[in-house]
Write a structure and sequence with these properties.
Blueprint lengths: L1 H8 L3 H8 L4 H8 L5 H13 L3 E6 L7 H20 L6 E5 L10 H17 L4 E3 L7 H14 L5 E4 L5 H8 L5 E5 L14 H17 L3 E5 L3 H13 L8 E5 L4 H9 L4 E7 L4 H10 L1 H12 L3
Parallel strand pairs: 1-2, 1-8, 2-3, 4-5, 5-6, 6-7, 7-8
Helix pairs in contact: 1-12, 5-6, 6-7, 8-9, 9-10, 12-13
The structure holds flavin-adenine dinucleotide (FAD).
Length: about 300
């Protein structure tokens, strides 16, 4: 129930205005978001890299409605990649991007061209790109663009969402040599016709997908904070004899940092997803929707004076 309220709020411009201008909001945002500028992104990336963690950076912005906005977002990524290279932060840091921020809803060819320019800049910077996955209406288009990009940039990463009924099939398709696939549970409000609704069904689907990816030939990226999923993934890594450079764990910035450190200390590759930029609102609402403790944190900050 609360989850759907916050997922609806993520799409509400009225709520966005209210929350973005609340004086206490800054403190809440910095728990989950590196900051608004490239310098913030570089600072947080440097700290995480010093701690032995890998990083994927997300310039926040989604549902871009004009071509100018899409081009500006693409340019932000080009600047980011150059600065990461100049700061010696590649290959530890890669970038994650949302095709909706590249104009996918206006014209998917435009989104492809922008993503392609970013892939080229990533190669130049000595790193790579992962395409985030958004709501189910975009899945086919995103996987088609991924396939096109991989012809010239084979290391481009995919994201698959375990809550979608189709995903086991997509895992089978993508579990091929060199294919980087991030498996997550899925963060959007989806109808029963396309997605499992109960936590148990989503978790069971996640494990089925995990088995396919870990037993396949690709490079699985296990994106979850769930202790049970992480324990099962560690077990499958032993079972399928995967070395630390043959799969990785991924978690969001600000969520379970002690667990990130524990896995890294155990010799695993752990990548932290670090968002930055002005458009943090939708991202923050999805994090609050996921976990009541995040809501309590948010409520406390909103009602406190500082
Ligand atoms: C790196 C990364 C990239 C992602 N990319 C995408 C994407 O492209 N598209 C998309 O739809 N979604 C994406 N997601 C979000 C994802 O789909 C889930 O919505 C999100 O990760 C929550 O699911 P979960 O598996 O972490 O565990 P949940 O089901 O949220 O939680 C399960 C359990 O994990 C533990 N836990 C969770 N959060 C915390 C916390 N804050 N502190 C302590 N314990 C906690 C608790 O024990 C909890 O019961 C991404 C997630 C990650 C980590």
């Amino acid at each position: 129930m609360l989850r759907s309220v916050f997922l609806a709020a993520a799409r509400s411009t009225r709520m966005e205005r209210l929350i973005s201008t609340a004086p206490v909001t800054k403190g809440i945002v910095t728990r989950f978001v590196a900051g608004t500028g490239v310098d913030d992104a570089l600072r947080v990336t440097g700290t995480l890299a010093d701690d032995g963690l890998a990083i994927t950076l997300d310039y926040l912005g989604e549902d871009t409605l004009t071509a100018e906005q899409a081009t500006a977002t693409k340019d932000q990524y080009l600047t980011l990649l150059k600065e990461l290279k100049d700061a010696g932060l590649t290959p530890a840091a890669e970038v994650s991007l949302k095709l909706s921020a590249m104009g996918q809803k206006i014209d998917d060819r435009m989104a492809y061209e922008h993503a392609r320019a970013i892939c080229a800049a990533a190669v130049e910077a000595g790193t790579t790109v992962t395409l985030d996955m958004e709501d189910h209406t975009t899945t086919d288009s995103t996987l088609e663009i991924l396939a096109e990009l991989r012809k010239d940039y084979p290391s481009t990463g995919a994201v698959l969402q375990a809550y979608l009924r189709r995903t086991e099939g997509d895992c089978r398709e993508l579990a091929t040599a060199g294919s980087r696939v991030r498996l997550c549970k899925g963060a959007y409000a989806e109808p029963e016709s396309v997605a499992y609704q109960s936590t148990l069904d989503v978790d069971k689907a996640y494990v089925r997908c995990l088995n396919i990816l870990m037993s396949g030939d690709g490079y699985p990226m296990i994106a979850s904070h769930d202790p049970r999923i992480i324990a099962i993934a560690e077990d499958r890594a032993r079972w399928f004899d995967r070395r630390p450079d043959e799969f990785e764990f991924q978690m969001l910035y600000g969520i379970r940092p002690e667990e990130q450190a524990r896995l890294a200390a155990d010799g695993h590759t752990v990548r932290v997803y670090v968002p930055y930029g002005d458009e943090w609102y939708g991202y923050l609402m999805r994090r609050i929707a996921e976990r009541p403790a995040n809501l309590a944190f948010f409520g406390k900050a909103l009602t406190s004076k500082k």
